[in-house]
Amino acid sequence: MIMEKLFIFDMGGVLCCDFNDIPVISDYLGITEENFFICVGENFRKLLDGKINSNEFWVRFSLRYGKKVKEELFGKFFNPGINQDTKDIIKQLKNNSRVVCGTNTIDSHYYYLLNQGDYDIFDAVYASNLIGLSKPDPDFYRHILRSEGVKPEEAVFIDDTEENVLSAQEIGINSILFTDPDSLKIRLKNLTIIHKIKKQV
């Protein structure tokens, strides 16, 4: 049996697949991804942290792009799928633990997934655009721990970005770099074995 009180799952790249709309948007605008991010500047972080909304983002983007972007392109091209194997793992974990989502997201993506019911599997959702904090800021994880009333050592964080995993580890959260559902199952089984050993010592 898994002993952790809390599991924190990333959304994009873990439960949600085919979520990266930047390549399609860049192609639509006729620019490279590198030039897209030059036009983005600091505004994407502000969008993630909820300091600006998507409409304001495109106004600012247009100034650097040199042309007015008339559509909200993040919403236009966002068409993700759900990894059913990961979803099944979450369902199993919920038999003994609380499972929440800790996601870096933007308003248009968040409300799309919310309306699709894709967050319904979680006991709670901590979205960067709503809480005003984003990974890899350690305060992002601290916010979740405080809200859930658990200590770092009582939580497990699963994310597909190494930088996010390392920052969670630095504040004492057991963290797993997600690559695929089968590997995640093995890592979770290893957690169970470690707990059994600690209990015997």
Beta-strand portion reads 5-15%
**Major sheet:** 5 strands, parallel
Q: Radius of gyration over alpha carbons?
A: 18 Å
- CATH architecture heading of the largest domain: 3-Layer(aba) Sandwich
CATH class wording of the largest domain: Alpha Beta
Shape: elongated
What would you say this structure looks like, in words?
- It comes from Candidatus Infernicultor aquiphilus.
- Pfam families: Hydrolase.
- This is Haloacid dehalogenase.
- The structure is a single chain.
- By secondary structure, the protein is α/β, with parallel strands linked by helices.
- The chain folds into two domains: 6-18 and 81-200, HAD superfamily/HAD-like (Rossmann fold, 3-Layer(aba) Sandwich), CATH 3.40.50.1000; 22-77, no CATH class.
- The chain is 51% helix and 13% strand.
- It contains eleven helices and seven strands.
- The strands form two sheets. It has a five-stranded parallel beta sheet.
- Helix 2 crosses helix 4 (54-65).
